[in-house]
Amino acid sequence: MAEASLLPVYLAVGADEVKRDAAISRLKTRLEASGMADFNLDERELDRGEHEPDDILSSLNTFPMGSDFRLVILRGCDKLAKPLSEMLVAYCANPAPTTVCLITATSLAKSTRLYKAIAKVGPKAVIDCSTKKRWEVPRQVQGMMRRYGKTMTEDAAQELVARVGESTRMLDNELKKLAAMVGSERIERTDVERLVVRTAEVKPWDFLDALSARDSARTFELLRLLPPHSEMRTYSLVCTRLRELICAKALDARGQGRELAATLGVQSWQVKNHLMWARCFRMEELVDALREAISVEEALKGSKDSETALTLWIARLVS
């Protein structure tokens, strides 16, 4: 019989590849303890080619050899053909007691018959591998670095995410390199800037956050990396951010800063730093910058050197 602490069916679902790989690794490690993993492991990519339901069912019902359980890993189960999906639904109702089946998917709606069938197997049958919200990723990265025996400053984690993107697999690859290449126990932002090549496109939000913090060096670094011919979009985003900061400053002055998200009609995490940023400016600075936006817009629409008009306006704002 399979070990008591293991369920016969699991679903690892979500876009976080590192979490999915970790779930697979835990079960493989458990199986390898028997010394008979080669005889009791069946891995299949169901999103590649045709797979007969009867063939997979036969594998699921095969008895283990010299081990307490057999492990069948079915990857890429986001959009299965109906016969295969229905076979798995039926199997979940009466799974083989000596097999552990791990089903993985980037996304699988909770309303599907397969998701519901797996969820009924047990309260821990569904392994949540969903990605973090964007603002939560740097903290997750700091935790991932600890697995390599080192720590990482928040600034360094933010810079890594900005350069690599939010794919946990890509981030994990870079963390492994940093851990090997940096001699000190703590990874600093300068280490990331020195050793990690930017592969992710600059997000306008990173630029706006640097501008809001009045970090002029980073503001212009990111401004140069924004897509070409995006001056009007950048202008529009800066105007929106100015209005948000004006609103934040006004509410803060009245002691109503907690009402900012509700006032702007956004989620609280989207404006979690706005009050701090607003305190970097005087109200007249923000209002003057918004007034100046009128002439900047005219220059953007009628000037051949629109990039200069935008750059000078941003320079006055962050200086």
Structure description:
The chain is of the alpha/beta class. About 55% of the residues lie in helices and about 10% in strands. The protein has helices at about 15-30, 35-40, 55-60, 80-95, 115-120, 135-145, 155-165, 170-180, 190-195, 205-210, 215-225, 230-255, 260-265, 275-280, 285-300, 305-319; strands spanning about 10-15, 40-45, 70-75, 100-105, 125-130, 150, 185. The strands form 2 sheets. A 5-stranded parallel beta sheet has the order 2-3-4-1-5. Strands 6-7 form a two-stranded parallel sheet. Helix 6 crosses helix 7 and helix 7 (about 155-165) packs parallel to helix 9 (about 190-195). The longest helix has 23 residues, at about 230-255. It is elongated. The model has no long low-confidence stretch (mean pLDDT about 90).
Task: Furnish the topology, listing elements before pairings.
Layout: E1 9-13, H1 17-32, H2 37-40, E2 41-45, H3 53-60, E3 70-75, H4 82-93, E4 99-105, H5 113-119, E5 126-128, H6 137-146, E6 151-152, H7 154-164, H8 168-181, E7 186-187, H9 189-195, H10 204-212, H11 216-225, H12 231-253, H13 260-264, H14 274-278, H15 283-302, H16 306-318
Parallel strand pairs: 1-4, 1-5, 2-3, 3-4, 6-7
